[in-house]
Amino acid sequence: xxxxxxxxxxxxxxxxxxxxxxxxxxxxxxxxxxxxxxxxxxxxxxxxxxxxxxxxxxxxxxxxxxxxxxxxxxxxxxxxxxxxxxxxxxxxxxxxxxxxxxxxxxxxxxxxxxxxxxxxxxxxxxxxxxxxxxxxxxxxxxxxxxxxxxxxxxxxxxxxxxxxxxxxxxxxxxxxxxxxxxxxxxxxxxxxxxxxxxxxxxxxxxxxxxxxxxxxxxxxxxxxxxxx
Length: 228
Known about the structure:
Domain Fumarylacetoacetase-like C-terminal: 28-227
Mean pLDDT: 95
Protein name: Fumarylpyruvate hydrolase
InterPro entries: Fumarylacetoacetase-like_C, Fumarylacetoacetase_C_sf
Number of domains: 1
Structural class: alpha+beta
Helix content: 10-25%
Strand order of the largest sheet: 4-3-15-8-9-12
Strand content: 25-35%
CATH superfamily: Fumarylacetoacetase-like, C-terminal domain
Keywords: Hydrolase, Metal-binding, Pyruvate
Number of helices: 5
Order of helices and strands: EEEHEEEEEEEHHEEHEEHEEEE
Radius of gyration: 17 Å
Distance between the termini: 39 Å
CATH topology: Fumarylacetoacetate hydrolase, domain 2
GO molecular function: acetylpyruvate hydrolase activity; metal ion binding
């Protein structure tokens, strides 16, 4: 092993259901506006256009069940998403072969400092300040596809303080999981440990300190996240 001149950063590794092993995270890709109704509520045309992605950092994924309200914002929004975990990758992956690279699926939230994201949009600047802040992606354990199958349909939902705020079906995704993997592999070389957050249905909105968020996807159970 090499000698490092500073402390080496820890590897983000997530619990795997039914296993003592953990899933190590390499990169986190997030697709934008992947449900037609959400595209409309964000002021965009829902017609199928080429997908676009932004990234979060591996250590933004947080399985603790607690979301600390971040600094420098007064408008933090929830976005419930299906997370896709890859066991292998490559370049120029065919759509028909894409699911063979999936290790499993899980629950996630793409928490967004909407006011800061909006400022960046107006100036034509990157979104990271609104999307990639600390603990901005609460995440549940990884469910192996060998146990739950490949999820192409099923209810996805978010409740805040017991009230349903977001609801949809995975079959409403404009770009399906195999298509996302294939497209990303044309732009990047995908690899084991990569995570894809696959977009959110309509109904995004703000949270406040003390709120309780409960996300669920059919076949993956539910997870509660407290806003600290």
